[in-house]
Amino acid sequence: MENGLKVVYLIAGSDRPKVDRAVARLRARFPAEAVELHSASGLSGQDAVAACNALGLFGGEGRLVLVEGVEAWKAADVKAVAAYLRAPAPETTFALVAGELGKEAPLAKAVGAAKGELLLWDVPKRGLQKWVGDQFRLHGATADPEACRTLLELVGEEMYDLASEVDKLATWAGGERIGAADVERLVAAGAETSNFALTDAFGARDVAGVLRASERLLSRSGDPRSRTIPRLASILTSHVGRLRGAQALEARGVAPKDAAATLRQHPFYVGKLYQQARNYAPGELDRATVRLAGLDHALKGGSHLSAELELERALIAITAPAPLTPGG
User: What is the value of pTM for the model shown?
Assistant: First the structure.
C-alpha cells in the first residue's frame, strides 16, 4: 500500500498491554473518522469482508477496518477472510485482534499467505517476572529482580494490573532504582487469586487460608474444575519439593544466600522457602509429598469421591499442624 502499511494485520497474544499498544499505534496512522471498529462476537467473517469492500468516505487517506476477538471465529469465517485476502480492497487496511492465537492457527496462516503482518506476543507463565522487568525498562525505570517478584506476589498474574502498578512505580521512582521494599510499601496486596496466595498459606500452615485461596483459584480461573484441580495439585507438589530441598540444605548448614545458586532461584525467594520450611518437620513434608501423590491418583480415577472433596481433604491433611502426642 502507498502509505507503507500492510493489507492485513493479525495482532494477538497473552501480552495484552503489548497488544493494546500495537493496536493504538496502528489506529494512530489513520484519521479517527477513517477507523471502523467491530467485534467478532457480533460480526461474521463474511460481514467483516463486506465492511472492507464497502466504499469508504476517506479513500484518499486510506481506512482501517479493525475487528477484535477474532479467536471466536469458526472455519467458515476464516475461509471468507482468506478468500478476501486473495484480492483485498485497495486503500483498506484490515486489522484482526485476538487473544492467544498461535502461528499455526488457520487465520494466522491466511494472514501469512497474504504477506500480512503477524504480531503475536505471548508471555509464558514462567516468564512473567522477566516480563515485569521489561515493562519497567519500557517506562525508563530499573527494578531489582526481587522487586519484580514481589510485585507479582502482591498483584497476581493479571497483566493489566501489573502494567498499571509498573507505571505508578516508575513515575514515583523518578529514575531511581526500585527495590522490593519500595514495592511492598507502595503496592496494595491484591493477588487473592494468584498461586502465591495458595503456596504462602500452605507455608504458613494456614488451613483456612489454603482453602480460601484454592476456592478463589477454582472459581476465577476460567477453566473447568477438571483441569484446574490437577493444576493446583501440581503447584503444591512442586512447592513442597522446593521446601524439602530448602530444608535439606539448611540441615547441612547452607545459608539461604548460598542455597540460591543450588536451587537456581533468586535469594529473595529462597529466603521465603527457608522461612516456610521451618514450619514443617522433615517427616511432615515427606508425608505431604506422599499425600499429594495420593491426590493425583484419586483425580485420575482412583476415588469415587468428587475431585473438589479430594482436593479439600488433601489440603487440610498436608497443611494442618500435626496433633500433639500424649506428653508432647
Answer: 0.49
